[in-house]
Design brief:
With 193 residues, the protein is an alpha/beta fold. It contains four helices and eleven strands, in the order ααβαββββββαββββ. The strands form three sheets. Strands 1-11-6-3-2 form a five-stranded parallel sheet. Strands 7-4-5-8 form a four-stranded mixed sheet. A two-stranded antiparallel sheet has the order 9-10. The longest helix has 14 residues. It comes from Neptunitalea lumnitzerae. This is Lactate dehydrogenase.
Length: 193
């Protein structure tokens, strides 16, 4: 037997016993929809996001978005809108300035205000990070209480790529002062529907 085969055989024979995963059912919550929405709004605003709550309104999302973007980012803003599914254009983010990135996250988390974005919303991974501002449309039915529930839902639709995003880019590395927008979006807006 070669030394390589001998080493591999010793490794196979020296495996530790399998240990069962811990029971995470203690993390389940019986939180009402209203509490989830209120918590998500509170935490998201603490994360420096702007939240617009349209849950109990009959406003047309398309008309609201057009007016909101024009009023808050300018009528001539370059918008990278991923709501159209397969009609998402390719953009060279090295040469093109994008004012607003728009997406519909699959999951939002109340405890930390983050949102799960997959390759379906990010055909170009840089799009959420190379844009000046981010605007997420969150369906209030997709808000979960904690990251434990979020990760269990992520397993169901992980896709090729996914990322949790919470608020605009923030850093406090330099002289311990908070800088917003240093490595990504300067502002983050969440529209709850």
């Amino acid at each position: 037997m070669s030394s390589r085969a001998s080493i591999l055989e010793k490794i196979r024979n020296n495996k530790p016993e399998l240990v069962e995963l811990p029971d995470l059912s203690i993390f389940t919550h019986n939180v009402t929809t209203e509490n989830l929405i209120d918590t998500f709004i509170e935490v998201s605003t603490t994360n420096a996001s702007t939240v617009v709550n349209l849950v109990n309104t009959e406003t047309s999302l398309e008309l609201f978005l057009a007016k909101f973007i024009a009023e808050n980012f300018g009528e001539h803003s370059k918008v990278y809108n991923t709501l159209n599914g397969n009609d998402i254009p390719e953009i060279d983010f090295k040469t093109t300035h994008v004012d607003v990135f728009v997406a519909l996250p699959k999951i939002a988390v109340a405890e930390n205000g983050c949102m799960w974005i997959t390759n379906e919303q990010l055909p170009q991974r840089i799009s959420a990070f190379g844009s000046e501002n981010t605007l997420f449309i969150v369906d209030h039915k997709n808000i979960v209480p904690t990251m434990h529930q979020a990760y269990s839902k992520v397993k169901e639709n992980i896709g090729e790529y996914g990322v949790f995003i919470a608020g605009p880019s923030k850093t406090a590395d330099i002289e311990q002062s908070l800088v917003i927008g240093a490595q990504g979006a300067v502002s983050n807006t969440i529209i709850l529907i």
